[in-house]
Amino acid sequence: MTSPALTVARSGTAAPAHSPAHDLGLLVLRLAVGLTVAAHGAQKLFGWFGGGGLDGTGQFFTMSGYPSGKAMAVIAGLSETLGGLGLALGLLTPLAGAAVLGTMVNALAVKWGGGFFAPKGIEYELLLTLAAAALTLAGPGRWAADRLLPGLRRERAAYGIAAVALGLVVAFLVLLLRK
Length: 179
What we know:
Elements: H1 4-11, H2 20-46, H3 53-63, H4 69-89, H5 93-111, H6 123-138, H7 150-154, H8 156-177
Helix pairs in contact: 2-3, 2-4, 2-6, 3-4, 4-5, 5-6, 5-8, 6-8
């Protein structure tokens, strides 16, 4: 079996960046991360899937040191629901990824200090944070709504890097509000 680097050296060309397997892998990752995060947003907004709804989530945010707990619950719920659905659909992927990334950085901050492993640790939140960052940087693949937006395809790297930076900056600004 020949390594990809050796194949490139011999033939002078690399394998296409978007093979069907690559696009399928991105689709599976987008659906898993996006729908998981969107479901968490629905827990916050509507109380679905055993969630606390706006009142319960608002109380949690207040107890976690955020001002205006109910308003923060709306912001987090919308960021997770819309960002998660955007990732799942591959629609405005850089912005969707930034929304999920920013929300998950705050989730990491709330759970920090409980160790790494579940149930009190941060492993789950860290995995979702890094998966959102990876999708934001890599792009959604060919089987995504973003294919209909040619500007996003041409400038994928620049938009991905800018979106990760945006998500991190907004997350840290929100964390500054926390007591």
